[in-house]
Write a structure and sequence with these properties.
This protein has 232 residues and is α/β, with parallel strands linked by helices. The protein folds into two domains: 113 residues, Rossmann fold; 105 residues, Rossmann fold, CATH 3.40.50. The chain has eight helices and eight strands. The longest helix has 17 residues.
Length: 232
């Protein structure tokens, strides 16, 4: 049985529950999902400063966990991805990286629809780092705050949908990547509405993690991902 640790790096428990439920829907029958979040850190991660504030709590909560076969980091900025890969030889998958790669296999060009404008530069930098910037037509901000996605009373879905329409019409996007873990419950209905693949990074990452585990592959401990040393 495969055991996947899914870590929401922010402290909002309702988002962690949503992420956990999405992970379970995406996982195979023989996979156990454990969804957790740190107790200390920012309630949402929206830009570079929040990302920095979240790292101590993320590293602490991952360090406490044992007996997992893979880790999924459920923040679209792939917060702490490189650091956590130094902590384990299990596969560690960021939801942004997973969604970008899958979108590039399904389309010639994809666009990303994320939350706030301040989140755009970090996503653009990651696309360059992963070698996929030429496959992304545009990173678009819906101007929906992360925590708005936890409310059923606002117009968050409508704003995200409107930005998808803009991406199709103006970017000529053939697929859409949803740029926030809090959007995980919107992917299926938005794909049906707009008639193109809409990728949720949580589901993408869980499936990639399962595949790497089945293949018996581990994170390399040579070079940059050499084991972390905590007591210096």
């Amino acid at each position: 049985m495969t055991r996947i640790l899914v870590v929401n790096p922010n402290t909002t428990a309702s988002m962690t529950r949503k992420i956990g439920e999405a992970s379970e829907r995406a996982a195979s029958a023989g996979t156990t999902i454990v969804a957790i979040n740190p107790q200390e850190g920012p309630a949402s991660i929206e830009g570079y400063f929040d990302e920095a504030l979240s790292l101590a709590g993320l590293i602490a909560v991952v360090r406490e966990q044992k007996n997992y076969d893979a880790i999924v980091l459920a923040c679209f900025d792939d917060t702490g991805l490189e650091a956590v890969r130094c902590m384990t030889d299990a596969p560690v998958i960021g939801i942004g990286e997973a969604a970008f790669h899958m979108a590039s296999m399904l389309s010639n060009k994809f666009s990303v629809v994320t939350t706030l404008s301040r989140s755009v530069p970090a996503i653009e930098h990651n696309l360059v780092r992963y070698g996929l910037s030429t496959r992304c037509a545009k990173v678009r901000a819906s101007e929906v705050a992360v925590l708005e996605l936890e409310s059923d009373t606002g117009d968050a879905r409508q704003k995200v949908s409107a930005e998808i329409r803009n991406a199709i019409e103006n970017d000529h996007a053939e697929a859409i990547v949803l740029g926030c873990a809090g959007m995980t419950d919107l992917a299926a209905s938005l794909a049906l509405q707009h008639g193109l693949p809409v990728l949720d990074g949580v589901a993408c990452a869980v499936n990639l993690a399962e595949g790497l585990v089945r293949l018996g592959l581990k994170t390399s401990k040579l070079g940059g991902y050499a084991p972390a040393v905590f007591d210096k």
